[in-house]
Hints:
The complex is a heterodimer. Chain A is α+β, with helices and mostly antiparallel strands. Chain A has helices at 16-25, 41-54, and strands spanning 4-8, 33-38, 57-64, 67-73. Chain A has one domain: 2-Layer Sandwich (Translation Initiation Factor IF3). Chain A is built from two helices and four strands. Chain A has a four-stranded mixed β-sheet with strand order 1-2-4-3, with helices on one face. Chain A is globular and about 30 Å long. The two termini of chain A are 16 Å apart. The model of chain A has no long low-confidence stretch (mean pLDDT 95). Chain B is α/β, with parallel strands linked by helices. Chain B has five helices and four strands, in the order βαβααβααβ. In chain B, strand 1 (5-10), helix 1 (15-30) and strand 2 form a beta-alpha-beta unit. The termini of chain B are far apart. The model of chain B has no long low-confidence stretch (mean pLDDT 96). The chains are: A alpha+beta, B alpha/beta.
Amino acid sequence: MAGKKVVDARGSFCPGPLMELIAAMKMVEVGDEIEVLSSDKGSANEIPQWLKKVGHEHLGSVEEGGVWHVTARRTK
Amino acid sequence: MEPNKISVIVLSDKREQLQMAAMVASVGAVSGADVLVFLSMNALRYFVKGAERRAPPEGPMGELMEAKKVMPFQDLFASAVELGGAKVHPCSMAIDVLGIGDGELEGYVGEPMGLTQFLDIAAGGQVFSF
Lengths: 76, 130
């Protein structure tokens, strides 16, 4: 069963949240989900673009109270 | 298809320039590009072990980045190497002029590189200078 990891990157500015996601991506298994919490709007836009470029899956982005929850699945 | 090749020349000792150089290097490297960073001139001293890590701002943006504790550029260069396989090399001329010895630079910085080798590697790719 696929796991899910939460990366709390609140307070970090671009490209910090993306770097934290990538570091976490190396630690999880293919098929696992990672949810990044970011207070940086630029990163909320940047992360899905990176996921598309490198071929991982963007499962969705939701903003709640100034915090973006960007969820991805490692595909390879 | 040939992999994207990005070469980043880093010369400035100002926070904004160093930060942008590190952002280009790190995002480029984790996005699949072959990234080469060439450290020279006034930038190199920030990569000496134990040296002052904070570069002076050249304007209000640099002051804001310091106040808001934006990730230090040195940490971003380290991420470029660790997460994206970037190569970071000091300019051999700057090493000689500054008198920097073996093992005195941060661990993620490679061996000194001359301009002939740098230009050979950079040929045909994107080159950014800060």
